[in-house]
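Supplementary Methods. Inverse-folding protocol.

Structures were first reduced to a discrete structure-token string of length 493. This string, shown here, constituted the complete conditioning input.
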């Protein structure tokens, strides 16, 4: 069994597949390397001597430069590797797009809505317009659990602290995300719950909704009724009665929109979980479906790969703006663009943002970039879209749901129990995590290192997604977790 893996022939480092001890002799692509230091699993080791200032190559691309001379067989990490990232850059359009060959769609049993969209759940959602009524929303969720039966698959409130004391774009973000979720096909019924004196009241949400399924949405302003809990339960009951008429029916995989996200990544994420997701993404797109890649700050250092795959020059320009606008956002707040990876990422073997980004973008496979979406904008094109949102797990996953994703695929090397408004499939990068946290993890991509092939693993993930789309619960749903977070960008009054 291999003890270390060189990802591409261009690489001058390899990834330790197990803990390696100082003095051990290993074989890597026909090369014999004697370890000069201990190297933890998931971390990098040099394949030959490197000089100070020499670029460290992984995934076939630079992930930084050596801070000092590094002997062959040495551990390469934050102590001797430095990022090459800086601020905004100029880019040239050099397309290298790869066409995805169409194939016959698979099927799943979903809920077809009046507006033509398809949901993979039939849930009753409670959306507070302002943090002041979040506790009311949670109490309504508790009282309405008796409605969960038959075609009503769940009642969930999504509390948040926003909706008032916001200005400009920051306030608009809250309104847009709430309006997007109110129209989501996974919600068979929605109660929009307002206070009555907030900036982002129910009327602001109502006029931003594009859903023509208005009979499935109710609005309640707490200040306008004597007992908001009694009135809320009544409205939820009316919605649940309508939802009982809903039935799953055969739907094509071409109608799926799947969000792609990673968090708590480790040194295995870019060689197991994310490539498996990439293979799934290409397969779904070949069937006529759609995927969305987000967390823009974690594209820094790998953005040229995505730019080369832009379908046309307009998409290239939009991708350049996506990257540079987010870098400008960092700079406007006096923060460096490379303040990443996290402590957990570093413990798992990721040393620089380039290292993280090159692994992160593996989730998008090889499909052309068909569209670039602003935060809060919904998917319009089939195929791969890029979405403007930060790397924060809850914020980015919520943004994917708001953009229209019925399911989010979330790869992780460290593990996390969080959820989002839609089923969130947790995909482990390594087998020990899957074995330890079976109450969190839904799919073990670590089996890729145990003899299974990438096409085989991507097909297994496709089958898992179709099962979830057809009603199979993911771990976070079984645990009762449903989270939502909105991107906070401005002044609080």
């Amino acid at each position: 069994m291999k003890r270390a893996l060189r990802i591409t022939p261009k690489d001058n480092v390899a990834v330790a597949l197990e803990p390696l001890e100082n003095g051990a002799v290993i074989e890597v692509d026909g090369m014999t390397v004697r370890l000069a230091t201990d190297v933890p699993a998931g971390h990098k080791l040099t394949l030959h001597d490197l000089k100070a200032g020499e670029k460290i190559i992984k995934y076939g691309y630079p992930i930084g430069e050596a801070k000092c001379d590094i002997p062959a067989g040495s551990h390469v990490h934050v102590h001797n590797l430095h990022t090459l990232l800086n601020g905004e850059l100029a880019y040239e359009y050099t397309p290298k797009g790869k066409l995805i060959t169409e194939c016959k769609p698979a099927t799943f049993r979903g809920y077809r809505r009046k507006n033509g969209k398809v949901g993979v759940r039939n849930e009753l959602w409670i959306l507070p317009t302002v943090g002041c009524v979040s506790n009311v929303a949670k109490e309504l969720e508790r009282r309405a659990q008796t409605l969960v039966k038959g075609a009503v698959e769940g009642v969930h409130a999504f509390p948040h602290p926003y909706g008032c004391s916001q200005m400009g774009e920051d306030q608009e973000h809250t309104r847009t995300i709430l309006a997007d979720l109110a129209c989501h096909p996974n919600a068979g019924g929605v109660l929009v719950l307002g206070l009555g004196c907030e900036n982002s009241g129910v009327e602001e949400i109502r006029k931003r909704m594009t859903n023509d399924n208005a009979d499935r949405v109710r609005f309640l302003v707490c200040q306008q009724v004597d007992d908001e809990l009694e009135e809320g339960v009544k409205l939820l009951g009316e919605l649940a009665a309508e939802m009982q008429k809903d039935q799953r029916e055969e739907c094509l995989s071409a109608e799926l929109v799947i969000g792609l996200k990673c968090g708590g990544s480790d040194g295995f994420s870019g060689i197991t979980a994310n490539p498996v997701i990439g293979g799934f993404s290409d397969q779904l797109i070949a069937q006529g479906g759609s995927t969305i890649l987000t967390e823009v700050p974690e594209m820094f250092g790998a953005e040229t790969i995505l730019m080369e795959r832009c379908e046309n020059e307009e998409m290239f320009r939009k991708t350049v703006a996506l990257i540079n606008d987010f870098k400008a956002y960092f700079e406007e707040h006096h923060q460096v663009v490379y303040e990443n990876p996290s402590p957990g990422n570093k413990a798992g073997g990721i040393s620089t943002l380039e290292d993280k980004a090159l692994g992160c973008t593996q989730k998008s496979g090889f499909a052309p970039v068909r569209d670039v979406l602003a935060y809060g904008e919904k998917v319009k094109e089939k195929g791969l879209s890029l979405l403007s949102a930060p790397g924060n797990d809850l914020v980015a996953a919520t943004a994917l749901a708001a953009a229209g994703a019925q399911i989010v695929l979330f790869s992780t090397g460290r593990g996390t129990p969080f959820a989002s408004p839609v089923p969130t499939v947790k995909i482990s990068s390594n087998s020990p995590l899957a074995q330890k946290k079976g109450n969190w993890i839904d799919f073990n991509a670590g089996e890729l290192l145990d003899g299974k092939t990438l096409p085989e693993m991507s097909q297994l993930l496709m089958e898992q997604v179709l099962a979830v789309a057809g009603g199979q619960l993911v771990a976070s749903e079984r645990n009762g977790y449903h989270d939502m977070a909105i991107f906070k960008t401005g002044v609080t009054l």
